[in-house]
């Protein structure tokens, strides 16, 4: 199965002092052992950079650009970066969800209805 990794997962993965760090490392390892593929998008990279370089007093990591770059390069080695076309697909799905105001389990059925039109 293919998974899109949330930026919060990436942030906790590189923050060894965070309480969720061990859980996230274990989850990623198990997914890979199961043959699942883990992906990120350019949006993840932008969000990661924002938090990594933001001052600690503003809920960031307070890293300088060189250290943030080092961690981002590590993330890019660990996870496959989805091409723009697939990212565009995700954005299209999000647009459909917002256009038809889908919530909860209705999302799947409404997307199927739209695809039949």
UniProtKB/TrEMBL annotation:
Record keywords: Transmembrane included?
yes
The chain's coiled-coil residues are none
Task: Supply the alphabetized keyword list.
Answer: Membrane, Transmembrane, Transmembrane helix
**Which InterPro entries did the record assign?**
PIN-like_dom_sf, PIN_dom
Q: What is the name of this protein? A: PIN domain-containing protein
Residues passing through the membrane, by range: 78-101
Please report the stretch or stretches of sequence annotated as the PIN domain.
3-84
């Amino acid at each position: 199965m293919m998974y899109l990794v949330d930026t919060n997962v990436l942030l906790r993965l590189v923050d060894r002092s965070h309480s969720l760090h061990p859980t996230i490392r274990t989850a990623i390892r198990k997914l890979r052992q199961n043959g699942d593929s883990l992906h990120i998008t350019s949006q993840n990279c932008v969000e990661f950079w924002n938090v990594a370089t933001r001052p600690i007093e503003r809920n960031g990591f307070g890293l300088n650009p060189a250290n943030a770059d080092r961690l981002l390069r590590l993330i890019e080695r660990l996870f496959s970066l989805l091409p723009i076309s697939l990212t565009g697909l995700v954005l299209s799905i999000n647009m459909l969800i917002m256009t038809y105001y889908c919530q909860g389990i209705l999302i799947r059925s409404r997307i199927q209805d739209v695809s039949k039109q």
